[in-house]
């Protein structure tokens, strides 16, 4: 995530928020990129059946829901408000909750409804330009089906889940929560990948600070600090999401899913603790950097001081013999000039030896 990307996103959020000021609660306003076209995929599986199809509308997608099949409807792009209303009407989702689905800046949360479970979480991944992407994802779990809403179609971390659904041997059809749990697992596992890349950058900066600190490194440290704060905002609430799901006694969450959710909760704790450690390291890196730059400056000043100290007696001797007096001793001696040079060289060597014994050099 480059600095320019962060600034651009902030401007977009301010513009979108300003448009909603004064509107009544439940007003359906999409905050994301309105240039993204909405596309809908349907994946349907049973023991000996697999279907993956792109559909043209929400009504067509909902027509595939069947009580004897597991159906995953994935909606990429949330710009088509009317299509979102169709999903909300089918699932009896009120406008307040649909508003949360469309609000791409909404904090991750879980809503336990009578016939559904709504999960909002943030998906993080690196795009092809190695920029960090944060994508708003909402999951609506119903009996025998799952509807997911993604902010964009540019990419996600769900390909491992899709591959497992294609393979009949890896489908866990005894648990109708397996698709949602698999998607949550993919999102949370990718948090580890994000933190690993941050760890690599921190290690590189640490080594450079110790070996060769640069003046522009403070801006890199500040950028990593901002990223750590951003990740904390995106990742930490996911612990509450998984914890609430794991402790819930909702009829849609079968007992078979609880061990997987408990395992996910353990992962979120580890991720949050690791992120906290990295934040502490980054805050300490600033002090380390300032200490390294101060030490580097002290070494430079010490070297300059030693050079000046060596030349002080030499300058004195040259200054004395540079005075234009006629009757000065040693001026007319044959070996006066080399003798002065010998004295200056001996003084320099003695001072260098003295500095070395004192370990100033």
TrEMBL record:
Bias kind Basic residues: ranges: 9-20
Top-level taxon: Bacteria
Chain intervals for the UniProt region annotation (Disordered): 1-21
Membrane topology reported for the UniProt record: Multi-pass membrane protein
Pfam families: CorA (PF01544)
GO MF assignments: cobalt ion binding; cobalt ion transmembrane transporter activity; magnesium ion binding; magnesium ion transmembrane transporter activity
Protein keywords: Cell membrane, Ion transport, Magnesium, Membrane, Transmembrane, Transmembrane helix, Transport
Keyword Membrane among record annotations: yes
Entry-linked Gene3D superfamilies: CorA soluble domain-like (3.30.460.20), Magnesium transport protein CorA, transmembrane region (1.20.58.340)
GO cellular component, as recorded: plasma membrane
Parts of the chain that traverse the membrane: 303-323, 335-355
Record InterPro entries: CorA_cytoplasmic_dom, CorA_TM1_TM2, Mg/Co-transport_prot_CorA, MgTranspt_CorA/ZnTranspt_ZntB
Cellular compartment(s): Cell membrane; Membrane
Coiled coil: none
General function of this protein: Mediates influx of magnesium ions.
NCBIfam families: corA
Family: Belongs to the CorA metal ion transporter (MIT) (TC 1.A.35) family.
Name the record gives this protein: Magnesium transport protein CorA
Source organism: Capnocytophaga haemolytica
């Amino acid at each position: 995530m480059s600095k320019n990307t962060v600034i651009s996103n902030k401007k977009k959020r301010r513009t979108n928020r300003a448009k909603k000021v004064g509107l009544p609660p439940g007003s359906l306003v999409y905050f994301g990129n309105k240039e993204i076209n909405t596309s809908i995929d349907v994946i349907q599986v049973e023991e000996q059946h697999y279907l993956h199809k792109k559909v043209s509308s929400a009504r067509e997608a909902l027509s595939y829901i069947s009580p004897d099949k597991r159906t995953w409807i994935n909606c990429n792009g949330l710009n088509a408000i009317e299509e979102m209303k169709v999903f909300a009407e089918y699932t009896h989702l009120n406008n307040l909750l649909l508003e949360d689905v469309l609000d791409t800046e909404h904090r991750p949360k879980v809503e336990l409804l009578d016939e559904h479970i709504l999960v909002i979480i943030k998906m993080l991944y690196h795009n092809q330009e190695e920029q960090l992407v944060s994508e708003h994802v909402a999951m609506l779990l119903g009996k025998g089906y799952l509807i997911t809403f993604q902010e964009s179609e540019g990419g996600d971390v769900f390909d491992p889940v899709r591959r497992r659904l294609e393979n009949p041997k890896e489908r866990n059809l005894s648990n109708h929560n397996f698709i949602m749990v698999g998607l949550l697992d993919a999102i949370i596992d990718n948090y580890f990948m994000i933190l690993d890349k941050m760890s690599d950058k921190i290690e590189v900066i640490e080594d450079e600070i110790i070996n060769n600190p640069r003046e522009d490194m403070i801006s890199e440290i500040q950028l990593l600090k901002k990223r750590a704060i951003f990740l904390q905002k995106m990742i930490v609430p996911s612990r509450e999401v998984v914890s609430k799901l794991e402790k819930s006694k909702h009829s849609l969450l079968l007992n078979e899913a609880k061990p997987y959710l408990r395992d996910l909760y353990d992962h979120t704790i580890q991720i949050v603790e690791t992120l906290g450690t990295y934040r502490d390291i980054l805050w300490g890196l600033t002090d380390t950097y300032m200490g390294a730059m101060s030490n580097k400056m002290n070494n430079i000043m010490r070297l300059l001081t030693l050079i000046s100290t060596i030349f002080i007696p030499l300058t004195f001797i040259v200054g004395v013999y540079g005075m234009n007096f006629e009757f000065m001793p040693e001026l007319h001696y044959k070996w006066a000039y080399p003798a002065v040079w010998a004295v200056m060289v001996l003084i320099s060597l003695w001072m260098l030896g003295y500095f070395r014994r004192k370990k100033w050099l």
